[in-house]
Amino acid sequence: MYWFPHTSPGHDECVWFALHHVDAIMPEGHNTSNVYVSGGHCFKLNAAEKEVSMRYDRTEKLASRISKRKENTFSFVMERTTDTYSVQKGKRNYIIERKKE
Questions:
Q1: What is the distance, to the nearest Å, from the Cα of residue 8 to the centroid of all Cα atoms in its chain?
Q2: What confidence score (pLDDT) does residue 51 get?
Q3: Tens-digit pLDDT profile for residues 27-83
Q4: Is 35 exposed, middle or buried (0-12, 13-18, 19+ CB in 10 A)?
Q5: What is the Cα–Cα distance from 86 to 97, expressed in whole angstroms?
């Protein structure tokens, strides 16, 4: 489940929405918007539609990234050998080199 706040979570009037329950976000006025959720309920918020939509989009992007990571898993097979390797920490990654005997 993915949730997003309509404003900063530190504010007392902050409302959290479950991503999968939001049906539409519509502007009501200059700095107000309506969020329609499943079940036919509507929440009138003291936040611009653009701001609420941006938070919704960020949460949707996060959900998409996480689901792609789950799908794109891979496995590998390691065969036993008598070779020796040295591991050194590079600038960003580890460098693995086969030691010559």
A1: 17
A2: 95
A3: 998 899 999 999 999 999 999 999 999 999 999 999 999 888 777 666 656 666 666
A4: buried
A5: 5
Q: pTM of the prediction? A: 0.67
The DSSP symbol for 82 reads S
Residue 98, burial from CB neighbour count under 10 angstroms (0-12, 13-18, 19+):
exposed
Phi, psi of 35 (to 5 degrees): -115, 120
What single string gives the DSSP state of each residue in 46-77? SS-HHHHHHHHHHHHHHHHHHHHHHHS-----
Over range 19-25, report the average pLDDT. Answer: 96
| Contacts with 26 (C-beta within 8 Å, 6 or more apart), sequence order | 33, 34, 36, 49
